[in-house]
Write a structure and sequence with these properties.
By secondary structure, the protein is mainly α. It has one domain. The chain has seven helices and two strands. Helix 1 packs antiparallel against helix 2, helix 2 runs antiparallel to helix 4 and helix 2 packs across helix 5. This is TIGR02444 family protein.
Length: 171
């Protein structure tokens, strides 16, 4: 997990807020169900938790409850006991429960790549800033760049045999 900095927290919170606003609009107009909106927001809420970004009072209360229930070991006969864990442990556990690492990494990578492609050649400062912000967030979590985001076209697969070889074998 990367070191938490105010910049990462601000980036994660801003991205989540933008996506939540758009999801609420789509739900309100009937273009998306609340269930689908929640599923699309899960990776971004996980990132908010992992980046230690400020959360709503309701979510802060859930984090406090989660802290009280962090399991620290197994007792005799399979009995579990709990201890109050740190807020960072609770946030990380909640993030993993909410959205597995592979899912939020994929969502972050896809969003970063799309933002880079939209920003390329654009005069829109907000597009370029969003691409930089998502790239900063992705780099902090070691989400690799894809060739498409770097402006490299996917290599065509070379033919197994050249046409001359095929003609020679057919004869």
């Amino acid at each position: 997990m990367p070191e938490r900095t105010p910049d990462l927290a601000a980036i994660a919170a801003c991205e989540f807020d933008q996506r939540r606003t758009r999801a609420r609009e789509m739900v309100a107009t009937g273009k998306m169900t609340q269930h689908n909106a929640d599923a699309l927001l899960a990776p971004w809420l996980a990132l908010v938790l992992l980046c230690d970004a400020p959360v709503s009072p309701a979510l802060a209360a859930e984090i406090q409850e989660w802290r009280a229930c962090i399991l620290v070991g197994h007792g005799n006969a399979g009995v579990l006991w709990a201890s109050k864990g740190s807020a960072a442990e609770a946030r990380a556990d909640m993030a993993r429960e909410l959205c597995p690492d592979g899912e939020w990494r994929a969502a972050l990578g896809s969003a970063r790549d799309a933002a880079i492609l939209k920003a390329r050649g654009s005069d829109d400062r907000s597009r370029r800033q969003r691409a930089r912000d998502l790239n900063t967030l992705a780099r902090a979590f070691c989400v690799p760049l894809t060739p498409a985001a770097c402006g490299v076209a996917p290599a065509e697969r070379p033919a197994a045999h050249s046409s001359a070889t095929l003609e020679r074998n057919a004869a």
